[in-house]
Each structure stands twice: as C-alpha cells, then as structure tokens.
Amino acid sequence: MSGIGNTSAQMALRDPDIRLMLRVRADDAEAFAELVERYQQRVVGIMNHLLGNVEEAEDLAQEVFLRVYRNRKKYRPTAKFSTWLFTIANNLALNVMRRRHRKPTVPLPPQESGPLGPRPQEQLAIDPGFTPARGLRQRELTAIIRQALEELNERQRMAVVLNKFEEMNYAEIAEVMGLSTKAVKSLLSRARAKLREALQPYVYMDGTPPPPPDEE
Amino acid sequence: MPDQEEDPQPNELIAYLDGELSEHDHEDMERRLGADPALRREADELKRAWELLDFLPQAEPSPAFASRTLERLSVSRPTEAGKRRAAVAPPTNTPIESPRNAWLRRAMIIGAALAVFGVGYLVPGIFFKRTPPELTQSEMEEQMARDLRVIDHLNLYQHGDELGFVVGLDQPDLFGDAP
Fold first, then answer.
1. Which of A34, A122, B11, B146 could form a disulfide with A118 if both were Cys (CB 3.0 to 4.6 A apart)?
2. Residues A165 and A173: beta-carbon distance below 8 Å
3. Contact B41 A213 (CB under 8 A)
4. B82 and B102 together in one domain
5. From the CA of A147, how many Å to the nearest CA of chain B?
6. Burial status of residue A18 (CB atoms within 10 A of its CB: 0-12, 13-18, 19 or more)
7. Whether A40 and B61 lie within 8 Å, measured CB to CB
8. Which of A132, A154, A123, A140 is nearest to A208 (CA)?
9. Domain contains B43
10. Chain A residues closer than 8 Å to B65 by CB
11. Coil, helix or strand for B124?
C-alpha cells in the first residue's frame, strides 16, 4: 500500500468497500464486478429518483461505473468509497439534468391527463367533496410526489435525494456536491419548504389530525 | 446564488428535524416549538411532506444490468485510445489485461506478421528457384550458330527501339533493287 498514509491504510482495512476499490485500482476485474453488484441498486435508485425514468437511470448508472473504472488509478482511500462514487454520480446527473432543463419537455394540457383521468389537484378543484382518503390511489399520489420533486432545481433535488434515500448528513452531501455545509443546509431548507408547499394538501390525508394550536 | 441566500429560521427548523443542530441549538429550538403553535404546525407539515417521499418506488436494476455494464466497458475500450491505457472491464471471468500482457500481445502480432511475410515471399524463392537447364556442348554450339546472325548485326539492331520493328525489316521487298 505504498503512497497511502497510515490513517488511510487503517481505514481501508476496516472498510470492505475501500478494500474492494483498492483491488479494482490494481486491475482486478472480479473486484470490479463485485463492486457493480454491490452498488448497482443504490446508483440506479438515486438516478431514477433524479431523472424519473428507469431506462435513463440505468444508462447513467452504467456511465457512473464506467467512470469509476476509468478513474480507478486516481482513487485514494482518504474517504468513504461511497462518497467518491456519489461524487461521480452527482457530476454526471447534474450535467444530464441541466441539459434537460435547457430543453424542457412540453407538459400536456390538463384535459389530456391520460388513462388515469383528472389529476387529484384537478379533482379537488372540480369536486369539493373529494377527499384524498377516498379518491386518491397510490399511483396518483406517487405521480404528485414525483412532480413535486421535479419542481425542485437540480441541486436541491440532488441534496434531497442524497439526504432522504442515501441518509447522508449535511457534511457528506457537502463533500459529494462540492459545497459548504452551510450551503447544503440552505439548499435543503429551500427544497423542503417547496416540498411542503407542493404536498400540503396531502400531508394529513391518512386521517391523522394536525397538531392542535394550543397543545401543551 | 439563490440557493445560498441566508434565511436563518427555516434553515434552523429543518436542521433541527434532520438532527443537524448542536445540543445548545437543539434545546433552543425545542423551547421555541413549545411556545409557538404555528412553528409546531410548520415543523409537523415539513416532517410529513418529507415522509411522503417514501411513497416513491425504489427502482430495481434489471437483472442484466451488471453484465451489460461490464460489456459496455469492454466495448468502449477502442474509443479510449489515448495517452493512458484504456480502462477496460472485460466480462467477469476474463482477467483484465496488464500493460505487460498488452506489449507481449503486440509483439506476438508483429512476429506473426513477419512469419507470414517470410513464408509468402522467401520460401517460394528457395523452393521454386529457376535454374537454367544445363546444356551439352553440342547444344551450346547449336544455339550459338542459331544466334550468330544476331550477334554479327547486334550494332545494327541496337538502333531499333522495338523488336517488332526489327522483325518487320526482315522483308526482302523492302531492301531489294528498285523495279
């Protein structure tokens, strides 16, 4: 392990992912295949949350692994392997989302909602007696949540996905996204405020009452 | 940049929900939540909206994802030609080629090309070399007699550029006495 400090060496010994990546760096094909197997679900999952399309998510996830392999000689076990992996994923995903943002898709008009019929927001507008508990099916709710996520800007979405689905803390997100912890705090604050605003009609749909205003 | 503008109160509330506040700030936020029903309601809505994200389905990679990824790495190798060695991940059961093996392989290809050249060019020369048939003394004398006229007039023949022209001159009509 020449060129790697004692601390890093100790970290590598403890962390099986780092050990695996060090084998990849030494051109071990089996180690790389194992790495793909181990991380494919997380990377595809993250990309799908960011892009909302499984095929695109898989293509991009493949590109992430391709870059991991190409850059294997540059890998230094100074941080968690997943941080390095998700830094690559972040760079690729942000590029794709920005390109998409420059060429936005044209949304269908409301009367063309498709086989599911009117969206819940539209239903609420035309039928005051409609309640989420009665009329909202899970896939419709999923579509609304998906829409709320897509309305966040690219960096907010990335921060949300890493925080929510990868359970990364602010410092880890900051490292992956190349930002300060303070900037991540601000990103997540704005993102969550937007999500709350977009999803407000559905937050109490399970019948749980909101907290009473004068609760002790 | 708008993402980085300061907006302290919501930042603190969300950091509280995320467990990112220091012990002192955490206690301070709990006091404020206890005293402010609107803030409490806001925190509850933020928490519930966050939990709604759990409804999003988790994408499963297709069963062939890993093998397709490894194949794609192999296929992409030629486009990686450049200063650094191509980063190749061949199929799982195929070892990644080391630089030493790559040089060995190139040397073997060059060697094989030279061997094919040798067989194709040199060997026929060795085995199918045309040696003039050995003539007997009488045959040599006969050939010289046959070519004697040519040898005698060689200085004249040298003026003709083509053999056909010289042969064409061999007509008595051309050089006979004028009628």
1. A122
2. no
3. yes
4. no
5. 11
6. buried
7. yes
8. A132
9. yes
10. 36, 40, 44, 58, 61-62
11. helix
Alpha carbon of residue A192 to chain centroid? 14
ipTM confidence score: 0.78
Residue B156 lies inside a defined structural domain of this protein? no
Whole-number Å distance between alpha carbons of B11 and A155: 16
Q: B86 and B107, same structural domain?
A: no
pLDDT at residue B146, as a whole number:
73
Q: Write out pLDDT tens, residues A184-207.
A: 999 999 999 999 999 999 988 776
Q: Cβ separation of A65 and B7 shorter than 8 Å?
A: no
* Three-state secondary structure call for residue A55: helix
Q: Are A7 and A62 in contact (CB under 8 A)?
A: no
Residues of A in contact with B14 (CB under 8 A): 185, 188-189, 192-193
The predicted-structure confidence for A58-111, as pLDDT tens digits, reads as follows 999 999 999 999 999 999 888 789 999 999 999 999 999 888 777 655 544 444
Q: pLDDT tens digits, residue range B122-167?
A: 666 666 655 556 777 778 777 777 777 666 767 766 666 666 666 6
CB-based contact A192 B76, cutoff 8 Å: no
> How many residue pairs bridge chain A and chain B with CB atoms within 8 Å of each other?
160
In eight-state DSSP terms, residue B22 is -
How many structural domains compose chain B? 3
State the CATH class of domain A1-103: mainly alpha
| Chain A CA closest to residue B10 | A189
Contact at CB, A66 and B57, closer than 8 angstroms: no
Percent of chain B topping pLDDT 70? 54
Nearest to A186 among B3, B48, B59 (CB): B3
Domain map of chain A by residue range? 1-103, 117-203
Verify whether the Cβ–Cβ distance B69 to A160 is below 8 Å: no
Q: Please give the residue range of the domain that contains residue B107.
A: 98-128
